[in-house]
């Protein structure tokens, strides 16, 4: 619970996301684990990996609709944000 509160106040703390992912995985919370892995990748500059992890999280949420709706909504928004950032990065690389 403390870690979640920390991440609300410090959403770009990559190390905290990594710990959150490990904890969620250990607690058998796959959607939270996937989101945390995606956030870690996003905040360490691995945008393509982050996009892929968010897509995996979204697919999991769609296949298991009884999971946390709030977490699924966050995943959908973050996927759009990271995908936009990734596309912009790709466009810059082609210039």
The gist of it:
The chain is an all-alpha fold and 95 residues long.
3D structure, described in words:
The structure is a single chain. With 95 residues, this protein is mainly α. It is built from five helices and no strands. The mean pLDDT is 95.
SS-derived structural category = mainly alpha
* Secondary-structure element pattern, one letter each: HHHHH
**Major beta sheet, specifics?**
none
Helicity level, as a percent range?
over 70%
Measure the end-to-end span.
Answer: 45 Å
The count of helical stretches stands at 5
Determine the strand fraction and express it as a percent band: under 5%
pLDDT < 50 runs, ≥5 residues = none
E-strand count:
0
> C-alpha Rg, in Å?
13 Å
- Overall form: globular
* Average pLDDT level: 95
Defining traits:
95 residues; mainly alpha; 5 helices; 82% helix
Task: Please outline the helices and strands.
Layout: H1 2-9, H2 14-26, H3 30-43, H4 47-63, H5 69-94
Helix pairs in contact: 2-3, 3-4, 3-5, 4-5
């Amino acid at each position: 619970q403390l870690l979640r509160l920390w991440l609300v106040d410090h959403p770009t703390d990559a190390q905290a996301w990594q710990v959150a992912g490990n904890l969620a995985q250990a607690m058998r919370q796959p959607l939270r684990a996937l989101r945390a892995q995606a956030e870690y990748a996003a905040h360490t500059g691995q945008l393509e990996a982050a996009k892929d992890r968010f897509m995996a999280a979204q697919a999991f949420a769609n296949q298991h609709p009884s999971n946390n709706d709030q977490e699924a909504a966050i995943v959908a928004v973050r996927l759009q944000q990271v995908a936009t950032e990734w596309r912009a990065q790709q466009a810059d690389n082609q210039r």
